[in-house]
């Protein structure tokens, strides 16, 4: 059985494990973790459950551009919430539609109450050539 563009799910391309941070951590600490891990977002966890996300864009728009202190501002003050997410068996096409509609670049993958992965616009673009090729082959049948 081959995978078709309609059947490709987020669990097949998601990055895992996901790096997390608590809401009381400073945004300086968040930025440092992102830089060290070369990632663009952190999932905010409280009481073992995901409650939000902080991205590089949040750091630029909500902290740097407004002159807020990176050490005096906590993640919980600037995180994006409610957390938008998908379940692992959601199709990649549906996830891309959600990301486009919400104008977001990072989409956590959650199973139950646990974050099991994350997909980004880059992840989707990395498989786009193969998906386009599959569609072309299918259209010639």
Give the topology, please.
Blueprint: E1 20-21, H1 27-37, E2 41-46, E3 49-55, H2 56-64, H3 75-78, H4 92-102, E4 106-111, E5 114-120, H5 121-139
Parallel strand pairs: 1-2
Antiparallel strand pairs: 2-3, 4-5
Would you tell me the structural class of the helices and strands?
alpha+beta
CATH topology, anyone? CBS-domain
Tell me the β content: 15-25%
Fourth-level CATH superfamily: CBS-domain
User: H/E series, N to C?
Assistant: EHEEHHHEEH
Overall morphology:
elongated
The pLDDT mean sits at 89
Q: How many H/I helical runs?
A: 5
> Any idea what the CATH architecture is?
Roll
Major sheet attributes: 3 strands, mixed
Could you explain the architecture of this structure?
This protein has helices at 27-37, 56-64, 75-78, 92-102, 121-139, and strands at 20-21, 41-46, 49-55, 106-111, 114-120. With 141 residues, it is an alpha+beta fold. It has a single domain, classed as CBS-domain (Roll). It has a three-stranded mixed beta sheet with strand order 1-2-3. It has a two-stranded antiparallel sheet with strand order 4-5.
């Amino acid at each position: 059985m081959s995978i078709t563009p309609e059947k490709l799910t987020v669990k097949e391309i998601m990055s895992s494990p996901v790096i997390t941070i608590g809401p009381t951590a400073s945004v300086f600490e968040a930025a440092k973790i992102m830089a060290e891990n070369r990632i663009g977002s952190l999932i905010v966890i409280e009481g073992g459950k995901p409650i939000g996300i902080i991205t590089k864009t949040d750091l630029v728009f909500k902290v740097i551009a407004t002159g807020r202190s990176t050490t005096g501002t906590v993640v919980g003050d600037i995180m994006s919430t409610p957390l938008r997410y998908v379940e692992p068996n959601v199709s990649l096409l549906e996830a891309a539609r959600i990301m486009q509609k919400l104008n977001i670049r990072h989409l956590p993958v959650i199973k139950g109450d646990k974050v099991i992965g994350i997909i980004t616009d880059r992840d989707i673009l990395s498989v786009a050539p193969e998906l386009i090729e599959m569609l072309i082959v299918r259209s010639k049948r």
